[in-house]
Amino acid sequence: MSSKTQSVESIAVVGGGYMGGGIAQAFALAGLHCAVADIDEETSKRTVARLIEEGRLYEGNGLFPVGAAEILADRLSPATSIEEAVAQVDFVAEAVPERLDLKLSIIERISAAATPTTIIGSNTSAIPIGTLAQASVHPSRFIGVHWMNPSYFVPSVEIIPAATTGDDTVLAVEELLQRIGKVPTRVTDSTGFVANRLQFALFKEAVSIVEEGLATPEEIDEVVSNSFGFRLAIFGPFAISDIAGLDVYENSFHSMEKAFGERMSTPTLLRTKVEEGQLGLKTGAGFLNIDPAAAGDIARYRDRAYFELNALKKRLGPAPL
């Protein structure tokens, strides 16, 4: 951490639902004291009690560390109001429901009550951060911090600076999330950001397949979770494409474009790379520019990872859907 990066030691979470509660648990179990503010004082008390009891249950199931319930009881405190919760903390996680009017009003209240140095991070899933920053008194201290559901267990957190967000704010939030064991990834401020644009694109195509009568929702889920979705637990889409070969991908797109038209047209960037001989791992140049000398190590890592994933799936058994 550089000397200019603010150290975050005190936290407030505004909104104690499933997402906000998990965020509060993540901070508390990582050693940070966290005030929790919900609709009113009584709701905040019930929220904290629920989080402690949930911690006891998860601890008993081996999902939380030993002593989790006691840690949560010690480090989570219900606030009498939003204003009390945020008055003297270094970082506020706003996690109220995904309604623009509600988020703007809550961010306005947080910003008015917090100190000028308090960082406010909105856990929006899709609303542009620049839009929400307009409700902040100090927009340089406002940033998007998009946790994934369930927030305690999923590593990724998207960090979304607005045009007005200060560099020191970005660095402080990245350091905070790394400290509690998350994987913060800085992405551009755009509706849906990265995770939800990709997730909703997949969902839209899945619904189209159902509408066309080609497969049932159950069949699609089975295929996805046991094919490319299985691989995505280890490699992202660009690593998978580079390993497979971008020329292979281009040929597949030709077939799908012929069948489905513009909806499945070959991406221009993919076509350009193939034309330039950037075919992925086998040429040492592609989307990720992986050294061909690493092919053996990658294959061994892939095989070990897929073996372990298969074993995990078998051990867990089918989901109780």
Features:
single chain; 321 residues; alpha/beta; Rossmann fold; N-(1-d-carboxylethyl)-l-norvaline Dehydrogenase, domain 2; 2 domains; 8-stranded mixed sheet; 12% strand; globular
Spatial ordering of strands, largest sheet? 3-2-1-4-5-6-7-8
Indicate the multimeric state. Answer: single chain
At the fourth CATH level, what is the homologous superfamily of the largest domain? Answer: NAD(P)-binding Rossmann-like Domain
In total, the number of domains comes to 2
Distance between the termini: 45 Å
Provide the CATH top-level class of the largest domain: Alpha Beta
Strand content: 5-15%
- Mean pLDDT across every amino acid position: 96
Characterise the protein shown here:
An 8-stranded mixed sheet has the order 3-2-1-4-5-6-7-8, sandwiched between helices. The radius of gyration is 22 Å and the shape is globular. 50% of the residues lie in helices and 12% in strands. It is of the alpha/beta class and 321 residues long. The mean pLDDT is 96. The chain folds into 2 domains: 10-186, NAD(P)-binding Rossmann-like Domain (Rossmann fold, 3-Layer(aba) Sandwich), CATH 3.40.50; 227-316, N-(1-d-carboxylethyl)-l-norvaline Dehydrogenase, domain 2 (Orthogonal Bundle).
